[in-house]
Give the backbone structure.
Amino acid sequence: MAQSEVNPSDSTATELTPAHQAVLPDAPSAAKESQSSSFGKSLGTAIKTIGEDELHIVKSPFSVSALKWDALAIGATGVLIANDESVLHQVPASWHNTSINISNAGVYGLGAAAGGIFITGLVTHNEHATSTGIRSAEASVDSVILYAALKAVLARQRPYTGAGEGKFFSGNWTSGSFPSGHATFAWTLASVMAHEYPNWPMRLLMYGAATAVSTTRVTGGVHFPADVFSGSVIGYGVGTYVAHKDRQKGPSPHSQNRIRRAENAILEHVAIQ
């Protein structure tokens, strides 16, 4: 009896085993590993998506179908650069602070609109709204990479900086003037939301806000006209590409009116579709 009290029988040990196995000390660690693996997979997918976007965006201007649009954009930019300083210095200095505040408010407002659409989609389980928010974020990252690289390479001197004002390759690679970041962001977000909700009130609101941001960067004395024009073109192109990629083609051009056919032609060539 004493021996049985000291050494329980095998049957007793067998009955205790499941109770001890019910709580596994390393179960939380397994859950953490699963979450970490899921996060890593999502991050990898996001990086791959952004990389594919950037590759497509960089390659698209060199396609044969885009050459005439490239020539038009480059020509317009060249004309603006030739007249940048004379146009900029006609703006009264008293407009600067108000214009800068308007441009900042416009960018923040567009960002808040995209975020609000995303949150509304999560709350109401609206897949289209959620997708719009995700596409807005994706397009914004694409634009950041593109415009930051151009700023660093072209290194244009900012307005009202004294000697070398408006000069390219001036060594100002950390805060270059060309292209305008505000204009790029504004047109990126505006084009995504306008193409996701293609009605005239939405388009007027989005593109009106983006135009106000671009204009006030010039009247604010922080960018030249060529800076905001190039940023607007880049932002519109990137936003429209992200909004329309991985989707089926729309109805036949013959079933659309002239305005819609013209718009689709621009989307195909200028908007990097």
Q: What stands out?
A: The longest helix spans residues 27-59. Residues 79 and 226 are 8 Å apart (CA to CA).
